[in-house]
Amino acid sequence: MSIELTTRNIGTGEIFYDNYVEQGVDCDITLPDYCPDIMRIIKCNLTSEISNSKLIGDRATADGNAKIRIVYTDEKNNIFCYDQDYPFSKYAELSTAYDDAFLSCSTKTEYVNCRAVSKRRIDVHGMVGLRFKVVGNKSIPLISDANGDGIQLRKKGLDIDNVSAVTVKSFEISQVENVGDSNGGIGKIIDAFASPILNECKLIKGKILIKGELLVRVVYCSDTGSNEACVLSCLIPFNEIAEAASVTDNSKADVKMHVTRLTAEPKTDNDGEYRYMNINAEVLAQLTVYEKTSVRVVTDAYSTDVELSSEYSPMEFMQLSHDMKENILCKQSLDVSSMKPQKLYAFTIMPPEHRYRFDADKVIISGKIPVNLIVIDSEGTPVLCEREAEFEYAKTVDSCDNLVFDPHVSIGGCSATLGADGRIDFKAEVLLNGQLMKCCREKVLTSLSLQEGTSEKNKKPAVVIYFCSEGESIWNIARKYNTTVEDIMLENDMTADYVENKRMLLIPVK
């Protein structure tokens, strides 16, 4: 008595570890002599970046820097900025070491608050969340066939998109931009924001080519002494190649990118004037590669000769349904009339928060863009207004049954203007990118062996008369009476593997 098993490996993109670690940011800032006294703090901003991350054994580590930016006014209501860095190093202990896995590390500001202890000192308390995400390609062996000892198998064919590779690519983007002469030189940086835009992803044997642009928006103070805010917006192109041995010309890839580091620093021209902006960024791209394939899985098994010991596990098989790449216009009127605004000094944005849901035959993506508005009120005082601009987009699909979606949402260009009614007309381009996938859930055979101490079943040749109902499965009848589907169909001159009409069957029992 023996069983011969045939197995096939199926790849699946796996998140082996995904957790947040908190990093406190607590410091006492004393302004240097060249900064004027603080009359009022407009905003305390906390951003963070990852300078280095690595995965060694069962530990993930990240080195980074939290940048504290204080935007304040002096006694003449002139706006000034002061920056201070807060370096940190954090790690996460994993339950085990993961071979051929990749670490994707990102940061998020949880909160920040500050108070002016005196005209020269500021007390800052904040928290940064570090997300350690370990991803890779997990190979799962599936039983596709078994022979010996009267084994009967119920199989199901599936067309799926098998994950053939998961990798990450980190790359730097640098460029020097001329801000021009119309607004004077660059004073202090108020805010810097960057968003990667994917324009094209091409796959050839062993390589993934990603082409896109990094949208950079820098808000800064002019050095003319006119207390004016200026904006530098630019698109920096990039072309990168990621290596993946299993990639073929017929593969498809899902690409998600985020900025892990961004610096924008003034740079002098030949006359010693700060007319240039030195921009440096690091982008992390996570790439999941899919390959179309057909598989046959075993959903049930028994033997007409011996008793078997079998195990089943629920599994999810994915199929690419639709490549979602949409540009959504977010347009909203933000009410700041209570501040009696006379002028919009500047505005800054933060990465959008988003969610999705399925409704009837639509997938709906909605979210909010945090917008910080600095307005000048009727008394000439700069005031901060924090608002949220909402967006929603619906895409019609053939069916929402068993669909899953993990979209990547980023911001393109944006603008804001102050209307006569004390409202801000805000516009932003929301970039949506992701793979809409159909999930097929099946309970499949994962282990099959002879039951311990088993012996051959007692075989008493006989014919059983069975009165069946319409729609009954011949497989279930054969399993119940320890025979085969083929024998029942042959005995009763049947062509379908189910009962088409209520009738009597002759069951040849082995």
Explain what this protein looks like in three dimensions.
The protein is mostly beta strands. The chain has four domains: 126 residues, no CATH class; 156 residues, no CATH class; 149 residues, no CATH class; 53 residues, LysM domain (Membrane-bound Lytic Murein Transglycosylase D, Chain A, Roll), CATH 3.10.350. 3% of the residues lie in helices and 73% in strands. A hairpin with a 5-residue loop joins β3 and β4.
What's the SSE blueprint?
Layout: E1 4-30, E2 40-56, E3 59-73, E4 79-93, E5 101-116, E6 121-147, E7 151-178, E8 186-204, E9 207-222, E10 229-243, E11 252-268, E12 274-303, E13 308-335, E14 341-349, E15 353-359, E16 362-377, E17 382-396, E18 403-405, E19 408-418, E20 423-450, E21 462-468, H1 474-480, H2 485-491, E22 503-509
